[in-house]
């Protein structure tokens, strides 16, 4: 048994994407920076999420290899392709590793994101950059994973961005949570097509994560220059952002008003294109 566990985080950085009509082309539209987390003992590890593009997967595989750890599994927090399409190169590099999820709904939603209609979306944003046949996770038989005798817990939490089911990885002995997209860190939150009801459901998921009293939260999307992973800060920030977006939409009559108000409140947040998309969906023409 390893004396203790360690936590290492890989951040993809922002990726350029084609912009939707109405975006100011003087600024490059980008996809939010994403994380993959390695929870390690002396030799073995669990990898949480596996990014999006093939090149990211290759960089991730090399990064894991350089740590000298052997991942027993890649755990998928939720069924969005930007968290598992990059798994292929990691699985090729570590043939004994499995891609897993702890809830059947996550497996189903991941499968839905690989249908032709959804792949058309991913290919329109990342032409030639994503796997033609992404692997889909299998359902794990246990809600606990052992890293050299240290328990790591899988927990189903609730709804987050786009309304999909969010699960987390909880490392009790370190008071660490890998939150997937339930919590964000200094990045505009993906509130595309959200409604007052879906935003309330997301707030309830934040409360459920907070109830576990973590000290550290590794968020699924994190600005590379975020100051820390302090749980209280990122939970409060995410909760306040959703509440501010909800109130601002209710008080506004057009997307530009929402964008201006939210940028004024969160001037240091990364990926303003996310805010542009979210605001645009609140006022259908």
Give structural notes.
The chain is an alpha/beta fold and 285 residues long. The protein has one domain: Metallo-beta-lactamase, Chain A (4-Layer Sandwich). It has helices at residues 54-67, 87-93, 104-112, 116-125, 196-210, 231-251, 255-265, 272-280, and strands spanning 6-11, 15-16, 30-31, 35-40, 44-48, 70-75, 98-101, 138-139, 144-147, 150-159, 165-171, 176-185, 216-222. A 6-stranded mixed β-sheet has the order 1-4-5-6-7-8. A 5-stranded mixed β-sheet has the order 9-10-11-12-13, with helices on both faces. The chain is globular, with a radius of gyration of 18 Å. The termini are far apart.
Break the fold down into its secondary structure elements and pairings:
Elements: E1 6-11, E2 15-16, E3 30-31, E4 35-40, E5 44-48, H1 54-67, E6 70-75, H2 87-93, E7 98-101, H3 104-112, H4 116-125, E8 138-139, E9 144-147, E10 150-159, E11 165-171, E12 176-185, H5 196-210, E13 216-222, H6 231-251, H7 255-265, H8 272-280
Structural class: alpha/beta
| CATH topology call | Metallo-beta-lactamase, Chain A
Shape label: globular
* Count of discrete domains: 1
For the sheet with most strands, the description reads: 6 strands, mixed
Q: How would you write the strand order of the largest sheet?
A: 1-4-5-6-7-8
CATH class: Alpha Beta
- Helical content stands at 25-40%
Question: How far is it from the N-terminal to the C-terminal residue, by CA?
Answer: 60 Å
Number of strands: 13
- Number of helices in the DSSP assignment: 8
Q: Which stretches are low in confidence, meaning pLDDT under 50 for 5 or more residues running?
A: none
Give the CATH superfamily. Ribonuclease Z/Hydroxyacylglutathione hydrolase-like
> Mean of residue pLDDT?
97
């Amino acid at each position: 048994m390893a004396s203790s566990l360690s936590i290492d985080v890989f951040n993809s950085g922002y990726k350029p994407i084609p912009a939707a009509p109405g975006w100011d082309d003087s600024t490059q539209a980008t996809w939010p920076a994403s994380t993959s987390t390695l929870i390690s003992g002396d030799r073995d590890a669990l990898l949480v999420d596996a990014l999006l593009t093939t090149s990211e997967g290759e960089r991730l595989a090399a990064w894991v290899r350089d740590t000298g750890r052997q991942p027993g599994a890649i755990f998928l927090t939720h069924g969005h392709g930007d968290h598992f399409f990059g798994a292929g190169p990691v699985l090729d590099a570590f043939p004994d590793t499995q891609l897993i999820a702890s809830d059947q709904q996550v497996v189903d939603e991941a499968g839905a994101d690989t249908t032709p209609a959804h792949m058309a979306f991913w290919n329109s944003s990342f032409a030639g950059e994503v796997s033609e046949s992404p692997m889909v996770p299998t359902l794990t038989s246990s809600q606990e994973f052992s890293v050299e005798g240290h328990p790591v817990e899988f927990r189903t939490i609730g709804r987050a961005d786009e309304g999909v089911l969010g699960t987390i990885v909880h490392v009790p002995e370190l008071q660490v949570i890998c939150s997937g997209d339930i919590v964000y860190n200094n990045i505009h939150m993906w509130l595309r097509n959200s409604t007052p009801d879906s935003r309330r459901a997301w707030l309830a998921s934040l409360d459920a994560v907070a109830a576990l009293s973590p000290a550290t939260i590794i968020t699924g999307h994190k600005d590379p220059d975020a100051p820390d992973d302090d749980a209280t800060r990122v939970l409060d920030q995410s909760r306040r952002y959703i509440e501010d977006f909800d109130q601002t939409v209710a008080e506004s009559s057009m997307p530009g008003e929402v964008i201006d108000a939210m940028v004024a409140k969160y001037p240091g947040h990364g990926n303003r294109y996310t805010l542009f998309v979210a605001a645009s969906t609140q006022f259908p023409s």
